[in-house]
Design a protein that fits this description.
This protein is of the alpha/beta class. The protein folds into two domains: 44 residues; 172 residues, Endonuclease, Chain A (2-Layer Sandwich). Strands 1-7-6-5-2-3-4 form a seven-stranded mixed sheet, sandwiched between helices. β5 and β6 form a beta hairpin. The longest helix has 41 residues. The structure holds 2-acetamido-2-deoxy-beta-D-glucopyranose (4 copies) and zinc ion. The site of one 2-acetamido-2-deoxy-beta-D-glucopyranose has 6 residues, from loops. Keywords: Hydrolase, Lipid degradation, Lipid metabolism, Membrane, Transmembrane, Transmembrane helix.
């Protein structure tokens, strides 16, 4: 009786340890792997880094117009890997809201793009530095004439940010001024991400500055 019982016990013990072994060794890693796979899928993010300068100026028609470039002989770049090409097409995909917070805005093709977005119904808001508003080839007056709201700081300190938020979902930030020299001359970087942790923080900052630079508060003109 005792012998049989202990044999049962031993067998039982063997069985449980076998099951435990299988669970720990074989099934657990499978479960963990699947779980982390699922997790990484949910956490999937767009993350792109762009570096300027580009070797030559990019054709804005090609990347930021509905009909593309229809010039018979276009001497501007159609290369999609250029930083400008990626920036233009990223901005061009804006559906509802474009928030731009930029120290210097003199690039005509970016001015065109922003005005076209505004005309197609996108709500565009621009914040810039007061000392840059009247700088030569500044796009700010042009944007305002087109009906775009543009606000600026009112201090001798710089509104030195350089970021844009597309549809409150995509953040573009970096050293990049919206100037032509920045696309084909300067060494500049841009980061594009849809990581909501960063997008939300920059959106909050934009709202904060937008309210702070309300012209009603300091009698300036928008
Ligand atoms: C970011 O983009 C990726 C790839 O398109 C997508 O799977 C993910 O859901 C997006 N995340 C957010 C927060 O929009
Ligand atoms: C491209 O063509 C325009 C005229 O269509 C000309 O003014 C410009 O200098 C040309 N640029 C280059 C880089 O060849
Ligand atoms: C862009 O934003 C990210 C996230 O906040 C930050 O880590 C990075 O330093 C910024 N880059 C520049 C050049 O401002
Ligand atoms: C931005 O561009 C302006 C005009 O090209 C230049 O004077 C300035 O140094 C640039 N500043 C920064 C910090 O990007
Ligand atoms: Zn072209």
């Amino acid at each position: 009786m005792n012998g049989i019982l202990s044999l049962k016990k031993v067998l039982g013990l063997l069985l449980t340890s076998c099951t435990t072994y299988i669970i720990i060794k074989k099934l657990l890693p499978y479960y963990v792997r699947n779980k982390s796979l699922k997790k990484s899928k949910n956490d999937e993010k767009i993350l792109k880094v762009l570096f300027f300068p580009d070797p030559k100026p990019t054709c804005a028609l090609k990347f930021a117009s509905r009909n593309g470039c229809t010039r018979a002989r276009c001497n501007l770049s159609h290369e999609p890997s250029f930083a400008s090409a990626q920036l233009l097409s990223c901005l061009f995909r804006t559906k509802h809201q474009l928030d731009v917070c930029i120290y210097v805005f003199t690039a005509i093709e970016l001015g065109d793009l922003v005005i076209n977005l505004h005309r197609s119904g996108v709500n565009v808001r621009v914040i810039t530095d007061d000392e840059q508003v009247d700088a030569s080839s500044s796009q700010i007056d042009r944007l305002r004439q087109a009906g775009i709201q543009a606000r600026h700081d009112a201090s001798s300190y710089l509104m030195h940010h350089k970021f844009a938020i597309v549809d409150k979902k995509l953040l573009i930030n970096g050293s990049f001024n919206w100037t032509l020299t920045a696309t084909t001359g300067n060494n500049e970087n841009l980061m594009i991400t849809n990581d909501s942790e960063f997008v939300d923080k920059f959106s909050e900052e934009f709202e904060k500055l937008w309210n702070l630079f309300d012209p009603k508060l300091f009698n300036a003109t928008t």
